[in-house]
Amino acid sequence: MAMQYQLKEGHYHLYDLSTPASTITGEHRLRLKTDNVAIAFDASTGVLHEHGSPLRIHSWASTARRRLWAAGSLDSANDIVVVSGPLPVDEINKCLQINGYCRRMFNRLATLPHGKLIGRAPARGKPQ
User: Fold this and answer.
1) pLDDT one-digit tens code per residue, 44-68
2) 29, 49, 56, 93: which could form a disulfide with 19 (CB 3.0–4.6 Å)?
3) What pLDDT score was predicted for residue 122?
4) Pairing between strand 48-52 and 80-85?
5) pTM of the model
6) How far is CA 18 from the centre of its chain?
7) In this structure, are residues 69 and 34 in contact, taking their beta carbons and an 8 Å threshold?
8) Residues 6+ apart with CB under 8 A from 63
Protein backbone atom coordinates (compact mmCIF):
# COMPACT_ATOMS: atom_id res chain seq x y z
CA MET A 1 0.00 0.00 0.00
CA ALA A 2 1.59 3.26 -1.14
CA MET A 3 1.02 6.07 1.37
CA GLN A 4 1.93 9.75 1.29
CA TYR A 5 1.52 12.60 3.76
CA GLN A 6 0.60 16.12 2.66
CA LEU A 7 0.33 19.24 4.78
CA LYS A 8 -2.95 21.08 4.21
CA GLU A 9 -4.32 23.93 6.31
CA GLY A 10 -1.98 23.09 9.19
CA HIS A 11 -2.94 19.39 9.34
CA TYR A 12 -1.16 16.31 8.10
CA HIS A 13 -3.26 14.34 5.62
CA LEU A 14 -2.30 10.74 4.86
CA TYR A 15 -3.41 9.59 1.41
CA ASP A 16 -3.60 6.04 0.12
CA LEU A 17 -2.02 6.28 -3.33
CA SER A 18 -3.00 2.71 -4.19
CA THR A 19 -6.63 3.81 -4.50
CA PRO A 20 -7.83 5.54 -7.66
CA ALA A 21 -8.00 9.33 -7.54
CA SER A 22 -11.46 10.84 -7.26
CA THR A 23 -12.87 12.07 -10.54
CA ILE A 24 -14.32 15.09 -8.73
CA THR A 25 -11.50 16.22 -6.42
CA GLY A 26 -8.54 14.46 -8.05
CA GLU A 27 -7.37 13.25 -4.62
CA HIS A 28 -6.72 9.74 -3.43
CA ARG A 29 -8.50 8.21 -0.43
CA LEU A 30 -7.82 10.11 2.80
CA ARG A 31 -6.70 7.67 5.51
CA LEU A 32 -5.79 10.05 8.34
CA LYS A 33 -5.97 13.72 9.30
CA THR A 34 -3.92 14.76 12.33
CA ASP A 35 -2.20 17.80 13.84
CA ASN A 36 1.14 16.00 14.36
CA VAL A 37 2.68 12.79 13.11
CA ALA A 38 4.52 10.09 15.05
CA ILE A 39 6.88 7.51 13.60
CA ALA A 40 7.99 4.33 15.41
CA PHE A 41 11.15 2.61 14.18
CA ASP A 42 14.24 0.67 15.24
CA ALA A 43 17.07 3.04 16.17
CA SER A 44 19.77 0.58 15.12
CA THR A 45 18.45 -0.25 11.65
CA GLY A 46 16.04 2.58 10.87
CA VAL A 47 13.32 0.10 9.92
CA LEU A 48 9.89 1.71 10.13
CA HIS A 49 7.30 -0.07 12.29
CA GLU A 50 4.29 2.26 12.51
CA HIS A 51 3.29 5.83 11.66
CA GLY A 52 0.22 7.95 12.30
CA SER A 53 -1.33 9.94 15.12
CA PRO A 54 0.97 10.36 18.14
CA LEU A 55 -1.46 8.85 20.66
CA ARG A 56 -1.87 5.64 18.66
CA ILE A 57 1.83 5.28 17.87
CA HIS A 58 2.99 5.88 21.46
CA SER A 59 0.43 3.31 22.62
CA TRP A 60 1.63 0.82 20.00
CA ALA A 61 5.27 1.33 21.04
CA SER A 62 4.50 0.86 24.75
CA THR A 63 2.66 -2.39 24.03
CA ALA A 64 5.40 -3.66 21.71
CA ARG A 65 8.12 -2.85 24.26
CA ARG A 66 6.17 -4.53 27.06
CA ARG A 67 5.70 -7.70 24.98
CA LEU A 68 9.36 -7.80 23.98
CA TRP A 69 10.49 -7.28 27.59
CA ALA A 70 8.16 -10.10 28.72
CA ALA A 71 9.68 -12.37 26.06
CA GLY A 72 13.19 -11.52 27.32
CA SER A 73 14.20 -9.51 24.26
CA LEU A 74 15.44 -6.44 26.10
CA ASP A 75 17.68 -5.16 23.29
CA SER A 76 14.86 -5.24 20.75
CA ALA A 77 12.49 -3.53 23.19
CA ASN A 78 14.97 -0.77 23.96
CA ASP A 79 15.69 -0.28 20.25
CA ILE A 80 12.16 0.98 19.48
CA VAL A 81 12.12 4.77 19.11
CA VAL A 82 9.13 7.07 18.61
CA VAL A 83 9.57 10.50 17.06
CA SER A 84 6.56 12.79 17.03
CA GLY A 85 5.71 16.38 16.38
CA PRO A 86 5.48 18.76 13.47
CA LEU A 87 7.98 16.99 11.23
CA PRO A 88 8.74 18.09 7.65
CA VAL A 89 6.43 16.28 5.22
CA ASP A 90 9.25 15.37 2.83
CA GLU A 91 11.16 13.67 5.68
CA ILE A 92 8.07 11.72 6.76
CA ASN A 93 7.44 10.56 3.20
CA LYS A 94 11.08 9.49 2.80
CA CYS A 95 10.67 7.37 5.93
CA LEU A 96 7.70 5.65 4.30
CA GLN A 97 9.42 5.12 0.95
CA ILE A 98 13.08 4.39 1.76
CA ASN A 99 13.93 1.38 3.91
CA GLY A 100 16.13 2.50 6.83
CA TYR A 101 15.69 6.25 6.24
CA CYS A 102 14.22 6.78 9.72
CA ARG A 103 17.67 6.30 11.23
CA ARG A 104 19.15 9.03 9.01
CA MET A 105 16.28 11.37 9.87
CA PHE A 106 16.70 10.61 13.59
CA ASN A 107 20.40 11.52 13.44
CA ARG A 108 19.52 14.90 11.89
CA LEU A 109 16.41 15.55 14.00
CA ALA A 110 17.91 18.47 15.93
CA THR A 111 18.66 20.34 12.70
CA LEU A 112 15.34 19.73 10.94
CA PRO A 113 13.06 22.75 10.58
CA HIS A 114 9.58 22.92 12.09
CA GLY A 115 7.41 20.92 9.71
CA LYS A 116 4.46 23.28 9.58
CA LEU A 117 6.50 26.38 8.79
CA ILE A 118 8.14 25.01 5.63
CA GLY A 119 6.70 26.32 2.41
CA ARG A 120 4.80 29.23 3.91
CA ALA A 121 5.31 32.53 2.18
CA PRO A 122 6.61 35.31 4.44
CA ALA A 123 4.01 37.84 5.52
CA ARG A 124 4.09 40.97 3.45
CA GLY A 125 3.26 44.42 4.66
CA LYS A 126 0.56 46.54 3.12
CA PRO A 127 1.71 48.85 0.34
CA GLN A 128 1.59 52.51 1.26
Assistant:
1) 999 999 999 999 999 999 999 999 9
2) 29
3) 47
4) unpaired
5) 0.83
6) 18
7) no
8) none
